[in-house]
Each structure stands twice: as structure tokens, then as C-alpha cells.
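Posting this for the archive.
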Amino acid sequence: MKSHTRAPAAAGVAGFDLLRRSPFPSLLCAALFACAAMPAASLASVPSGKRGSKTHHKSKPKIVPSEVALTSQLTSTPGATVTMAPVGLSMEYPLMAQDLGSGPCPAPALAAELVRLGSPPLQLAGVSQDLTAPNGALAGLPSSWETSTLYTLTPNFWSQLHCLLLSSKDPLTVGLNVRTGNTAWATQMAAEATTAATAGLSFSLGNEPDLYPLPNYAALDKPFAGEEAAASNLYLQLAGNLAPATQGAPLVGPELSRPANWRAQLPRVIQALHLQTVGVHSYPLTACSTPRAVTIGGLLSQEAATYPTRLGWVVSDASAAGLTAIISEANSASCGGLAGVSDSPAAAVWAVRFVVSALKTGFREVRFHFSGDPYDPFVVRGAEVLTRPLESALVALNQWLPVGSTLRSIAGVRELAATAVGEPNGQALLILDNAQAKARPVVVRGASSVQIQVFTPAVAGVQSLVLPSRAGAVKFSLASNSVVAISSAP
């Protein structure tokens, strides 16, 4: 049985620039093993003209390469410590039920995929969190529009999930319905979730409460003064009613869609709910108003790459309370993303940049959302798991940044953003990011040979190979808008 199949993705992105006139082998060429031993002269263009004729060329400015030494000095200065898997998963309830299938246990390929991702935290969340009722809770005819449109869990949902988690060993976070639920529902779901979890259990109370409607009955088309405080007060009242159902299990939240909306209220919410982890949502782009707002250029922009830095104040609020902060729901573009962008190789490049930025900002983890839409990292189809380009970046990030490693920015690498990772085994790993419009020649010293893993918007998946040192240096060319991880070859 084939467990992992590459899902169809968008066509390659223009702009992967081969340095035909450079003495540095093209990284794409090398990654495809087409020119690993090709002499430099063979990569140069041959001037046209008759034999013996004199051809005059303007001298081109010399391209100074980006140089770095892969030595222990890269990690001699302390950096941010990785305390949990950098990448987690967030999944809507109906999609999780669909992926679990109809048998007592889901297809083995699903458990294998979660293990491949590093058995990261799995959170049941999203819009469906506040629309989900436990099995048996909605007996009889629906009494209103809201109750008739709720999603009811199947009788075997939790036993199927337990079977999955026995194999995959993912910690579980279960979202409880605050907006349309009640204490009895929360108590039932919390008890059933306890039977499903195998490697730790936490809960979240409500999804994106900052977007819950709060009518202004004096003027229904207008907001009212003090709306932020009034909304947070009502949320705290309702969430507080449900909190005892969790039996003291750790709480993640408050799952804000637009954290800035409740910036003044967040410290009070953190304290009142006795949260163990502060979780907020972050999407650099949005397809909610128009799909035209979601482009590959936008996804590869510096703004999208460093979007977590806008939420540094959330980390500060969490730290002031002695807590950690995570981005508990994220992906390329809200409202499901856009086909041709969110499922393209560019999404993998963006994900590496986004997670590295989040960790440097102080967040401990980023949970990537699944909703049955183009931005999902993988898709379950019967007994198969079909992976999209984003998935390979999530696998790589949890491998490059294991728990116990450290990371910090490195200055002085010409025209490249550089991040040094000190791994628990004492080895150093270097992540170079070329956000320039042109390819960059790279020189790596201090290693007899290096292993490189590359993400580029032109090729789906990670391109891996080993490059030997020649004359004391490893040389290659890093394409535009590409990211490479470099480590000493074993």
C-alpha cells in the first residue's frame, strides 16, 4: 500500500534563476544530480561570433559571494531554546471525522503521516469548534436555526481517535464549544476526550471569541463604546462556566482571531481563565474578501515571512504571567487559502520563514490549520495520504529544530538572512534565506563536505544532496526566494 503520494500542486513559479555565468554550480542543477561533477566552464555561456574575430564585452561587476564558516562558533552565543515541537497541527472536527474513516481505526497511512511529522501536538479546533455537539446531545427535532446547523460527533469518533493516537503518539488539544454549547456538552466531550488521549491532553475554550457578535441594541448597525471590554467580560463568564468540565487539565487560549482587538484585555483574560499556554491565530494573507488578495508574490514577501513579529506583545503578556505563547492556528491565507498559491511550492518556502520568525519572536510553536481547503498540508483519500508541498516544510522544521536545540540570527552573511541552530547533539545547522530577486553565490568553509536541504518556489518538496569541499570551500548558488539548511555531512 502506498502511504505517501504527492498531491497535484500548482505549476512551477517563474524566477528560479540559474547562474549560467557563475563559477558556482546551480543549486537546482545540483539538487537534480545533473551537474554535480560539471566543470565550471561548462556552465558559462560561449560567446558567439566567427573564429578569430575579436569580440568586445563590457566587463561585468564581480559578484562577491555570501561566505560563512560552519564551525562551533556559530552556536557559541546562546539563542532562543526550542522547548516543544516547532510545528503542530490544528484540524476542524468534521475533517478529522472524515479522515478517521468508517472503520474502528483509521487507515495506517494517517498514523504514519503523523509520525513522519514528528508526532506533533494535534488540536481539534477552528470554526467547527463552536458548532460541534457531542453524540446524542441533539435528540429530537431541532428547535432553532442554530441547533439545526450544528455538527454532531459520531458515536465512534473518540474511539477511532484513540486508535489513531495509540500509533501516532500525538499530544491532543480538544476545543470545547463556548458560543453555542453548554456545560453538559462540555462535560461529556471532556470525559470522552480523556479516553482518547494517549500522550497528553489539554483543552481550549471557544474559538476566536473576539469575533463573537455582540449586538448594540441602541443602534444595531454601529459598534458601541466599551465593546471590547463588554465582549471579553461575556466571554470570560461563558468560558468560566465551562472550565470546570476540564477537571483541571491544561488550558490553551483564548484563540483570538485578531489579537489586537483585545490587546487591552488579554492580560486579564489570561489571568481569569488560568491558562497554561497563551494561543492566538495568525494568517499573513486572507482570501475572505477576494481571492485576488492571495498571490505567490505576497506569500513570498518579507511582510508575510515576518508576520509573527507583529504579535511580539502577545509573547510579552504571556511572559509577564509566567506562561509560554504559541500561534495555535496559522496558515498561508485565512478562509482556506487559494489553490495555486497555498498548495504551491512557494508555501513551503513561506512556512520555513514564518516558523523561524515566530520562534525568534518568542513563540514556542506554530500549529498549521486543516479545513478541507487548498492550504491543508496533506489530504486523506481512502487508504492514502496525499501530501502537498507545504507538508515537506513542516517535516523539515521539526527535524531541523528538535526540542532542546537553540537558534539565533547571524549577522554579516552578505545579502542573506542567516539563522544558526545548535542541536542537542552539539552539531551546528545553518539556515540561509535568499529573499533577493536574484540568485546568490554561497561559499561554506569549515567542513570537508556538507549536506544541504533546499526549498524553492520552483520545485515541490525538499531537494537534498551532499556537496564536497574543494580547495577548502563548498560552493553553490542559492536561487531567488529559496531557503537552504546546511549541516556537516556524516
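The chain is about 25% helix and 25% strand. Residues 345-361 form the longest helix (17 residues).
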